[in-house]
């Protein structure tokens, strides 16, 4: 039985994990990753560190991660104890716990032994998977309350689900490339938007090449999601395709917003305070987009025609 307590745990895990992801992005954007030196879990050798902006940001991130980690663990144990017969819920709660542990260990390793940007970008990617897992548990709770939807037996054409998963994997790669740009500090590789340094196709090396590749990949993602929406619209299965259609509409709006926020990043790069806000907005939109695509991919697989 799904109790209010369990739904509250699921929502708390989701919101908390989202805050952990934003806190991690804030640490990166403010260069506060070394705010606690090379100590972990202590900060500069102290449980309560001396006040500096960098140590405050880094230690706050650790504290939030620790608290959310406890909530995630409690949610998993509750799921295991009372809802293990619901395999889907167990997978989502277990996935959240696994990704939370992995990303915490990667964060600790980054403090003790500074990592390459490619590894640090993967750290963000793992956090993204943790957020998506908590979102899936929340969505599962909401759908289980709707008995009519839960009882629906309509199916989706089998061709839909490999397309959905292909877009999901591609989106993950685009977001990873964006995180890599953030960790290499090459944000300013392309001045101006949509042109890059005044050129349609810039010199493809160094910072400009990396940023342009991210922009081009985002444009392709927009085309893929738009095409996927058109394909889903032609789906004959009314009940399940309407759910997918709604998801693809959300994804289309979000990817457009994501590209627009990328333009804002370029426009505000010389204003440190505004740039921090636009950077966090860019991260939020990317995370929500990934969560929507994750739900769409899983739903298309669950209800595919055999």
TrEMBL record:
Highest taxon above the source species: Bacteria
Pathway: Porphyrin-containing compound metabolism
Positions of transmembrane segments: 59-78, 90-111, 117-139, 159-181, 212-232, 244-268, 274-298
Predominant subcellular localization, coarse grouping: membrane
Pfam family, one: COX15-CtaA
Alphabetical keyword list: Cell membrane, Disulfide bond, Heme biosynthesis, Iron, Membrane, Metal-binding, Oxidoreductase, Transmembrane, Transmembrane helix
Compartment list: Membrane
Membrane topology: Multi-pass membrane protein
InterPro entries membership: COX15/CtaA_fam, COX15/CtaA_HemeA_synthase
Protein name per Swiss-Prot or TrEMBL: COX15/CtaA family protein
Native species: Paenibacillus profundus
């Amino acid at each position: 039985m799904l109790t209010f307590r369990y739904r509250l745990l699921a929502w708390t895990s989701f919101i908390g994990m989202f805050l952990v992801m934003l806190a991690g992005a804030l640490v990166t954007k403010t260069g506060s990753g070394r705010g606690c030196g090379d100590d972990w879990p202590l900060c500069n050798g102290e449980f309560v560190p001396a006040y500096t902006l960098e140590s405050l940001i880094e230690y706050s991130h650790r504290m939030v991660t620790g608290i959310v980690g406890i909530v995630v663990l409690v949610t998993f144990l509750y799921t295991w104890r009372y809802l293990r017969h619901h395999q889907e819920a167990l997978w989502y709660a277990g996935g959240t716990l696994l990704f939370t542990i992995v990303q915490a260990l990667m964060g600790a390793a980054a403090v003790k032994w500074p990592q390459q940007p490619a590894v640090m970008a993967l750290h963000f990617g793992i956090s993204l998977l943790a957020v998506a897992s908590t979102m899936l548990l929340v969505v599962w709770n909401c759908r289980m309350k709707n008995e009519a939807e839960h009882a629906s037996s309509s199916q989706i054409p089998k061709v839909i689900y490999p397309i959905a998963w292909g877009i999901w994997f591609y989106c993950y790669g685009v977001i990873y490339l964006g995180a890599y740009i953030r960790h290499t500090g090459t944000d300013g590789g392309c001045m101006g938007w949509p042109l890059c340094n005044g050129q349609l196709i810039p010199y493809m090396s160094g910072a400009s090449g990396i940023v342009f590749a991210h922009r081009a990949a985002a444009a392709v993602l927009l085309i893929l999601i738009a095409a996927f929406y058109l394909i889903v619209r032609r789906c004959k299965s009314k009940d399940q395709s309407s759910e997918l259609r709604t998801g693809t509409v959300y994804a289309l709006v979000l990817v457009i917003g994501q590209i627009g926020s990328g333009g804002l990043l370029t426009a505000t790069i010389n204003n440190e305070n505004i740039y921090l806000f636009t950077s966090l907005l860019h991260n939020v939109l990317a995370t929500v987009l990934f969560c929507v695509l994750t739900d769409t991919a899983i739903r298309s697989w669950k209800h595919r025609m055999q």
